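Q: Sequence in, structure out?
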Amino acid sequence: MNMQMKHFASAALVLFAALAAHSSDAVKVACIGDSITYGLGLADRAKESYPAQLQKLLDEFEPGKYEVRNFGNSGRGIYLDLMRGSEKRGFRYMPEHKAALEWKPDVVICNLGINDNGEYIKEYTGGRRRGQFESDYLSLLDDYRKANSNAKFYIWTKLSPLAGGQKFYRSPEPFLMQADLEVVAKKMDAVGLDMQEPLREKMDEIFARDKIHPNAEGAKIIAETTFEAVAPKPKPCSYVFRHNSPSRNAEFWICAGQSNMQKGWNEFNTTPQEKERVKGEMARLEKCDIRFWDFNNNRWRRLTPMNALEKSAFGVSFAIRRAEATGKTIAILYVAAGGAPTESFLSEQTMCAVGKDGKPVYPHLAAIATNRHRLDQNKDFPCAWVAREYPRRRANKEEAYWWPVSKMYDNGIKRIKDSGIHVDGILWYQGESNATTCVAPDTPTDRDYQLETLRALVSELRSVSQLTTHNSQLPTFIMMGLPKMNRPWEQYRAVQKQVCDETGAIFVDTFAAGLGEANDVHPRDKTVFADLAAKAASAGK
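A: Exactly. Output:
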């Protein structure tokens, strides 16, 4: 047998073995998508594409149970009317789509969206019908549901990042698109996959060839991320509010911010005077019904003197006073972490918002969000202290883990929003990480940037409550002004007050009240701050 025949025979044996490995009742996994799914540019697409590497992982996990097929087609997207030269660009027109439907897959994994970037912005500027991307995506997936009513869907709700030098690098479209992708996932009961975060760490290496198509290492990361979602595993604690949450007649308050919101009474319980103060607060707490939801673990707890000391001292003391004033159960929705900048509480969609003219509503924030590098590599990030401390504390889930753009939003604010709870009020105590650049000399950040950030924040947090005919009032928004300290916070306090005046939020001027300590960023007596906040809440209701 000559070498050519030997090679053919060997290839045939490999193919036969691969087919034999998957029984007729194997779970059929269809990977539909564009060139990233196809594996464009890979040296050995049959082995290195993410569907091929996913097959290998699934075979190692449970041999023969899954059969993965690659239905990728380069350059394809969602919009049905979008052209690529003289041909349609939409994946729904492609032979791969027809072949996948005929196969009747049990699992459909879709990564489409990147090739729609050039058109997507038109949905915001009037050049397209708003919602077309979403409806065309749903139509595509509905074809697969009709082919197999039991099909399970996985879609990339956060698309693969684009590296510097690529056409749409640092454009807002992929970030605006995320909101529609999440809606599609919800309507299809699909699992959303985040490919932005796992690929970002080694972005420059993974996309070195053409700034958009991942190399074999990048395809492996995609396969591993997909495998973690597809392969059966113990179900994690789900973020459900309807169980063990307070009744609807409770008053719900978001208590959000950084360390002055985060720190519990156990950290201010050292001197005899402090011990007496804490004892008094716990005695008052015992007479109230206060429930506490912690975004770190999704647990509701009724607070007692036995478990409240580790919780937000400021938030708990505010809730005590609010309960005494109203006679109601007060429910605290806690979303706070030491050092967390305002950008962490904003969604990427808000930061990348565009107006009818297609220009960014918040240009400073858009620059930060679209720079996909880590926080400490993001040259647009204004607070040098946060950027410097972030890499040092990255492994600490109570600190730098929550600092990156949109992290607190995704893990806290968004979960509250998705719960459907009507929030009565928002208590915001943050600003130290946004007031100055925190480098010598300690100079304030750009005033326009401060204005943008706080305007976006008030809008973001208020949008948590969906207004209905029964709940037609915006939630009360209380913003605690930065107290006195030997730092140049005058400009930020003025901006805080200006934004509150513009939006109807309540500014609590702690500086004018004489609160704060000259050399300590964490004033130890939180009761005086809680007194002011509770008074503002009563006046604002």
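The first strand starts at residue 27 and ends at 33.
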